[in-house]
Automatic annotation (TrEMBL), chains A, B:
Residues 421-509 form the Non-reducing end beta-L-arabinofuranosidase-like GH127 middle domain. This is Glycoside hydrolase family 127 protein. One of its GO terms (biological process) is carbohydrate metabolic process. Keywords: Hydrolase. Residues 27-410 form the Non-reducing end beta-L-arabinofuranosidase-like GH127 catalytic domain. The lineage of its organism: Bacteria, Bacillati, Actinomycetota, Actinomycetes, Micrococcales. InterPro entries: 6-hairpin_glycosidase_sf, Beta-AFase-like, Beta-AFase-like_GH127_C, Beta-AFase-like_GH127_cat, Beta-AFase-like_GH127_middle. Transmembrane segments: none annotated. Residues 512-633 form the Non-reducing end beta-L-arabinofuranosidase-like GH127 C-terminal domain. SUPFAM superfamilies: Six-hairpin glycosidases. GO terms for molecular function: hydrolase activity.
């Protein structure tokens, strides 16, 4: 092992990247900040809950069966081992986040001992497959996928605790994969990308080049069709085209984004220009045609797929939690590669909308799919479109994925380059930058004022502050050491030359009506309300009695204002808007609006106006199940 | 056997129904009429194609395996036997339609001999299951489902040819089902309804009451949960609630409509008022919240389900062909029960839109799902959302279902009651009504003029003519024996008292802009174009070069006119409309339309106007794959 052991999830070795992550312990989020509170909830509620569920669902027991002969059947999908690994990764980041307070070390060691005992002599470790089944079904077997998550857990544990017990397990399995699928071995790759990014990180930690080589080989081979055909189309497995020929996001959204993250890691270590071009094309495709205003991706329930360009229905939005997490991870790697603020913008969008919306206020209820609309009369019996957040899922990939991301959030706040430090995510935090500590003070995302105090000695280097694309650059205010300074935004950042002691940034946060591209048919005539990075929604809960959510339309020209908190909804700022109420329960589904000429139906008569209180999308459903919508119709003839 | 042997698909015995079908040979469709041409295409192209595909897919071979020991595996789903049965039913209706010309009798006999040889001594007949597997999985086994289709084929063959060879096979299997699941037997029903309607028809043909009793018993038991839980939710199998407690359509659309058709048959023979109330509630639910403007139902790809009320996305419309056929069959039974024109209206809507759209102009390409929009850039690789019609499917339920419906279409044209004759579907046809022949002359659906000539002796009974709900009743013109007559519409019909010699009906057919209920979010701001019963669509094919379909919006107030045929599209009448062209390729997916106030984004600049030629929806794709849409945006600021 010759790599750094103090890093977070991503520690590039090569000099390809334009930005370098800070050490994992460099940033401390204030426990009262949005992100800090989320981390506390994750530690105090989500992680204990996840560990309990892993026992109850038999996911940990699956490993015990390998150690102590048992008649009990394997439980869960063939990728269920990864739920344990993602949880171990979360526990490891927790250990690094609060190194003085390690309540999970005992649990972790027990699990590591169990994995060590369960592992075969040749390094193979999977709770379902044995004998001829091993690596027999690359398309659906998920064996390299679970290896990837095992590696990520092991890397995290080593980096935050220095312990190599789990790393030994992971390397034995990874070495087996190298022997089997490495150069000169079988031409194979996994039906579910994920091992690519993990192998690169294992290389970064250990310096063992064969891991990077295997990752690159898997990327190069992908799309050659070796997975064969099955119940899902080739794009589902990211096997429809060689990576270098792909021009659009396609197929299963999580697989697509995990693959892209892995490719970005390969680029970060190899500088491959063709692969970088692929990533940029793919990013533009995702952002330009296939991402919800919340940052969610993968609109289709069927095959958990992206769907066609501009196919973004709010009601049937699948927008799997894991897809948003995968987008975050991909965006982070693009940020490191390019230093461009648009990638941090997307991290922020997912972080305040698509991702937190998947977790209940108490941290123990989860959404797998994250719709942008729930209809009155919604049949919430499906696990994939439930009426409320659920404690667990038959396919429980999302909760432990959330846990590992949230436990490592501080790792994504800032980076550095040869000129200085870049702040990407604004949060109340202390950021150690070598020479000293930057005290970042803000009520973000509820308030756009950010004060960075570098202390009396100041920061000798440059400080780059992200100016989000959602902010009106002309209205941004920047005060450097007491002097109002012109804001020059370059690739998404305002750069303050050091030395500097105190920077005040004001990002104005008016409530904005957001319109979608005209090809997004599903939200024609609607706007979404956004304030700063936070997207809002209106719910049936809170409406006057007798008013059905679907009967409301915003009044054009009426004010959109920030408003105080709402009982039962954990958010500092809500939004007020005025809507006209046009009751339309029942009546014919279709009617002739005009004959012989293009006309439109007159709207139902208005019975009055209603002041709506919109709440952050990420807190929808906090007041119980019921109708919800992000996209609000704008009345045509109010 | 004591039932009539000259009937069509539905021959009620009891006097519950208010309308009685005519004998199957009473109506002869003119070969040049829309429906007559469809029947010819079905006979000349679709049926030979289907027979070939059943061989190529191994569906017929599955039966041979039961007779001659073979190592060849069973091929296809566990309900694939029904494809053979539906084809046999189609062949039987053909035999009754053109009794002097029976090219299929040899093929039919071969198949019947094969089934006879394949049937077990106890009557069981299924190509996949044997031993302990028999009736072991009611939820997914489809055994009673395939029995239902076998019975329907046998009833058709007996009614049109008098032959009982297939009926013997069907009764042996049905008797086994009665013994096993009848009164005092196992409480069981099939996960896919269909046997209910078949058993009632078998009772009607044979007079054997136990078949009706089993059908009623299955309806009564349904929803008691005996199917248990599986990968699909209970509503998928119509097992979520006892039938009498159901208030809304739910679950798998085909199963829902087949069940309703079966319940309607039970009501027709028992008069059960609670079940009739269920049917009327269900109908209102389907028609009021969950049916496409084409008559398609089942909007979700996931679970082929209805989805929530008003969830009717045009692009992801699943709208399975079989669901439209099932709606047609359900509507027909409701028409017989109630005599209300709204049910015939729905038969007509499916017959000119959802159903024919599923078949290519040459009769050998099919759609399983029937979207109302295909996007530019559509990934057409899915069998369930292909870029063009396909020759066959892994789940090939639709093509033979189409074949049996089309071969029996003349059976749905007219009925009688004690007062006289009712005309439901307008088509150029001769209708034998006992005393004589009604010569119906019309260019329907392209022209709304219908002339009924009862000959010099005239019709002594009353003649009821359906006045479709799409027609402006005030503008309908009725001339009875040369005298212009007031049109009084009662329950959907204008009744002309006999005796009468000649009736001229004029249903004006302006091009109408149809608007959807405001809760159908997916088509907000759009209209669909309809002329008479025919819904139109606009396709990329035929647009000027450089104009992308998605960049067009109709100009409010501009004329909608009927227009002549379009090359490559088999339709007598097309529709012209004027659209504004606003190119919007690329650009951001979301943008702030306004800050602090409700505003909407300005549309992209217009580059000019385009005259669109809309073609009947049912002929979309005739000019090759490409973008298509039924719902057209209306420009806001043209």
């Amino acid at each position: 092992m010759d790599g750094p052991t103090t890093g977070g999830p991503t520690v590039p070795r090569a000099t390809v990247v334009l930005r370098t992550p800070l050490p994992f312990d460099a940033v401390t989020l204030d426990p009262g900040s949005f992100l800090g509170r989320w981390q506390s909830l994750n530690r105090d509620a989500t992680l204990p809950h996840v560990l309990r569920q892993l026992e109850d669902a038999g996911t940990i027991e699956n490993f015990r069966r390998l150690v102590v002969p048992s008649e009990a059947p394997h439980r869960g999908f063939n990728f269920v081992d990864s739920d344990v690994y993602k949880t171990l990764e979360a526990l490891a980041w927790e250990a690094g986040r609060l190194p003085a307070d390690q309540p999970w070390e005992g649990v972790t060691r027990e699990l590591v001992d169990l994995l060590t005992a369960a592992q075969r002599d040749d390094g193979y470790l999977h709770t379902l497959y044995s004998g001829d089944e091993v690596f027999a079904d690359l398309r659906w077997g998920h064996e390299l996928y679970v290896l990837g998550h095992l590696v990520q857990a092991a890397v995290a544990r080593t980096r935050t605790t220095g312990r190599t017990d789990l790393l030994d397990v992971a390397r034995r399995f990874a070495d087996l994969a190298v022997a089997r699928f490495g150069e000169g071995g079988q031409d194979g790759y996994c039906g579910h990308p994920e091992v690519e990014t993990a192998l690169v990180e294992l290389y970064r930690l250990t310096g063992e080049r064969s891991y990077l080589d295997l990752a690159r080989r898997q990327v190069d081979l992908r799309g050659s069709g070796v997975l064969g055909s099955g119940p899902f189309p080739p794009a589902y497995h990211q096997d429809h085209l060689p990576v270098r020929e792909v021009t659009e996001v396609a197929g299963h959204a999580v697989r697509q984004a995990y693959l892209a993250a892995g490719v970005a890691d390969v680029v970060a270590e190899t500088g491959d220009p063709d692969l970088l071009a692929y990533l940029l094309r793919l990013w533009d495709s995702a952002q330009g045609t296939s991402t919800y205003v919340t940052g969610g991706t993968g609109s289709r329930h069927k095959d958990e797929a992206f769907g066609d360009p501009y196919e973004l229905p709010p009601d049937r939005a699948y927008a799997e939690t894991c897809a948003a997490i995968a987008t975050f991870q991909w965006a982070w790697r693009m940020l490191l590669l390019t230093g461009e603020g648009r990638f941090a913008d997307e991290m922020e969008r997912t972080l305040y909308n698509a991702i937190p919306g998947s977790t209940s206020v108490d941290g123990t209820g989860f959404l797998y799919a994250n719709p942008l609309q729930v209809r009155t009369g919604h049949d919430g019996s499906s696990e994939f479109a439930p009426a409320e957040r659920l404690p667990w899922f038959a396919c429980a990939c999302c909760p432990p994925n959330l846990a590992r991301l949230v436990a490592s959030l501080q790792g994504y706040v800032a980076t550095r380059d040869e000129n200085g430090v870049q702040l990407h995510l604004y949060a109340d935090a202390d950021v150690a930058v070598g020479s000293g500590v930057l005290r970042v003070r803000t009520e973000y995302p509820w308030d756009g004022r950010v004060v960075v105090d570098a202390g009396p000695d100041g920061l000798t280097e440059d400080l780059a502050l992200r100016i989000p694309a959602w902010a009106d650059a002309a209205a941004v205010r920047l005060v450097v050491d007491g002097t109002v300074t012109d804001v020059v935004v370059e690739r998404g950042y305002a750069r303050v030359a050091g030395p500097v002691r105190r920077v005040e940034l004001e990002l104005p946060m008016p409530v904005v009506a957001v319109a979608a591209h005209p090809r997004v048919d599903a939200v024609r005539g609607c706007v979404a309300l956004r304030r700063g990075p936070v997207v809002y929604c209106v719910e049936q809960a809170g409406l006057p009695s007798g008013v059905v959510l679907e009967d409301l339309a915003l009044v054009p020209g009426s004010p959109l204002t920030a408003a105080p908190p709402v009982a039962g909804v954990d958010a500092l700022v809500t939004v007020e808007a005025v809507a006209v109420h046009r009751p339309a329960t029942g009546g014919p589904l279709y009617r002739a609006a005009s004959a012989g000429v293009v006309g439109t139906a007159s709207p139902a008569p208005a019975t009055g106006r209603v002041t709506l209180r919109a709440v952050p999308y990420h807190r929808w459903g906090s007041r119980g199940p019921g109708a919800m919508r992000v996209w609000l119709p704008v009345a045509e003839h109010p």
